[in-house]
Design a protein that fits this description.
- By secondary structure, the chain is mainly β.
- It starts with 23 loop residues before the first strand and ends in an 8-residue tail after the last helix.
- It has 1 helix and 28 strands.
- The longest helix has 4 residues.
- InterPro entries: WD40/YVTN_repeat-like_dom_sf, WD40_PAC1, WD40_repeat_CS, WD40_repeat_dom_sf, WD40_rpt.
Amino acid sequence: MAFQFGNTQSTGLFGTQNQKSKDIEVTSPPDDSISSIAFSPASVPLTFLVAGSWDNKVRCWEIQNSGQTIPKAEQMHTGPVLDVAWHDDGTKVFTASADKQAKMWDLNSNQSIQVAQHEGPIKVVQWIKAPNYSCVMTGSWDKTLKFWDTRQAQPMLSLHLPERCYCADVLYPMAVVGTADKNVLIYQLENQPSEYKRMESPLKYQLRCVSIFKDMKKNLPTGFALGSIEGRCAIQFVQAQNPKDNFTFKCHRSNEASTYYQDIYAVNSIAFHPEHGTLATAGSDGKFSFWDKDSRTKLKTSDQMEQPITCCSFDAKGQIFGYAVSYDWSKGHEFFSTQKKNQIFLRANANEELRPRNRKR
């Protein structure tokens, strides 16, 4: 089903809904674990959400002011969809799959075409919009990072990675890629993408996610947050003025009274609020938490969901926090249940909940 972008301006978030009411559940969710969600960019007057999942599909919903979610369209890969990303003009979505392809989905025509190919599953896809070029960035388990002009069959640039690509984020003019063996590579994207810095993750175990943050005053990317399977996050500045500016903190761990053990869960996703610069983490414990990295404080922790939270994201205005609830296989096949459905929830008062406590309104 194809759809056209409307030109109705948003007048209010979820109408007059009580801010403290239950989070809104997205209708017609994916049939398997949800790998990635992303909201439409600010260039789109309406709000849309796309999600990629292990049922080989990518889906799109329109989010109305009332909070109602309307399924609009879907597309297929021949393998699980591992990542999704929007074009900056909001008319196209890029999808990365375990079938070793990345596709560009034109939402107006509901047609998708292959725009990238790797020798292994493609774990991440990002759109780069630079003053002098634009391209799709793909990172794969074949240990390469490739940059594609969507009009050409061959990559405009291919860079070797030290290990399999596990996670990546782009906020022009910076890209950060995390790989197996705890490698973190920072790229500058001006003129042409090139490696700027390579480091080892300050976390002890396997990386799961990365998200770039910016200097809110200068509005430029200045560092990134890393999440790992050990229930810990790292805040890392690219050029720290003081080594103590870089730090790690524990999260997504049980609060057991026993001194003998503590349940530790993977940090599956990290997202920064576009206005406040505070962040959300989502974990295998089925909880999300909001944090203020500058004051190093926790703002909120959610109730526990029935399944892990696999990914999370903020809309372009920072008013909606979206998160996906589905099994991440962190406890093995014996904990998988067909009775538990996959869900995506929308939380409407993110702008207030993510506001730093020490900042005046």
